[in-house]
Structures are given as C-alpha cells and as structure tokens.
Amino acid sequence: MITTQLDPSPAAVPLPEETRARLMKVGSANVANVLLKHGFRNVYLLGVAPLAPEQGQLVGRAYTLRFMPAREDVDSMANYGRDDNKHRRAIEECPPGAVLVIDAMGSTRSAAMGDMMAARLKQRGVAGVVTDGGYRDAPAIRETGLPCYQKQAAPPATPIAMHPVELDGPVGCAGVAIYPGDVIVGDAEGVVAIPAALVDEVAAQALDAVEYEAFAALHIARGRSIFGLFPATPESRSEYDQWVAAGRPSLEDAQ
C-alpha cells in the first residue's frame, strides 16, 4: 500500500530564533521602512488595528484562510458545523507558532472568528490572528490573551455573509498580498507582512534602525537638531558606531 505524504505548510517552518528575537524588539513601522528600502511599498495592512491595545508583540509565519461571499443554498449553520468546513479546519490546522491570516474581503457583515475559536487557537499555541474583517465576542477574545487584529467588530454569524473557500494559499488581506510562510509582525500600531525570502535580512536591519533611533533620541532630548542626525548620515553613523563600541553610555557619562 502506497501512502502519499503531504508537504508541510510553509507556515510550519520555524523562524530562526535570532530572527524571531529581533522582530520581537522592532515596530511595524520600522519593518515597513526597511521593506521600502528593498522596493516593497505595499506591505502595511492599513485599517487593521489591535483588538486590545495592551496585547503583546505578534510575530509568526502566515497560515491563510480565504473567504468569498456566501450564498444561501450553500451557507447554513448546518453546513458550517461540518468537520470539513474550511473555517473550522483552519482553527485545527494552523500550525503552532504561526499567525492565522484571514482574508475576509474587507467585509464586516459577518464574523471572521469568535471567542471559542480564539480560545482553541490559544490552547494550540498559535501566535495570533489577523483579519481585514472583524470578530464577534470581542470581550471574550481579549480574555484569551491571543493577539488579534481586525478592521472593526463584526458580531453576525459567519455564514450570513462569508463562505470559506481556501486554506494555505495566497490571499489579499487589507489590500496586501500575503503568501503562506510570509512573516507577520504586529504591534500596538498595526500589522506588516514580510516576504519570506527577506525575513532574516529585514529583521537585522529593522533592529539596527531601532537601536540607532535610541541613540538619536538621546541627542534630540538634549536639544540637538535632526539635521545630520535623523535620518542617519555617514557621519552620524560613525558617531553611533563609536557610541556602541563604548558600551552605549548616557550622554552625560560620555562627556
């Protein structure tokens, strides 16, 4: 008897620990700036915001679910309850450590997820959820502690407006092309998507930018002009490198 082994999802490939650690320290805006230098302009999921302002940093590879508009002869609560329903399968099949990215077509006519699904994802070790639609049971989702991002609340039942049509394929979420295995970074401002092939390089460059900004902020706090300081110039970068080599002292200690 011959069995066929399905290839694992790109979302299941672990991020290198150093890359993950770097991305946990950077802002979504820093990542977007770095990607702009690489020629990528459309990477920020505009209009998508954290469900809870205090939720932690979100980092993980994208596992995707795509919806299409519902149709009454197909989408019912009975069909929704089937074990082969792709919405419910996404909750059980999204790899631990991954981010479930839900392409809801930008619709908030019905829910992309509710609290029971969020609780199950949290229990399974999924990193978080991002949608350009919205959730129902938002207060209960917040209580799970699962980092989640949405466009706005969408309490009506999912089958009213949305039919799950594909798992683990390319999607457009908030107008951004996201492929399985791309890396999602979310913070208190919003969400950015990093093409998988660039993630190590982007993580290193984004952390470098954050650390340079800490240096620049010390000087700005003491009245220094941003001219010749921010954005960095060759001269200010040399000054920064010397500061790092000296152990990053406070400006008072450096005098």
Automatic annotation (TrEMBL):
Molecular function terms from GO: metal ion binding
Residues given in the record as Mg(2+) binding sites: 137
Pfam families on file: RraA-like (PF03737)
Keyword terms, alphabetized: Magnesium, Metal-binding
Binding site for substrate: 114-117, 136
SUPFAM superfamilies, sorted: RraA-like
Cofactor (UniProt): Mg(2+)
Keyword flag rRNA processing: no
InterPro entries on file: RraA/RraA-like, RraA/RraA-like_sf
Name of this chain's protein: Uncharacterized protein
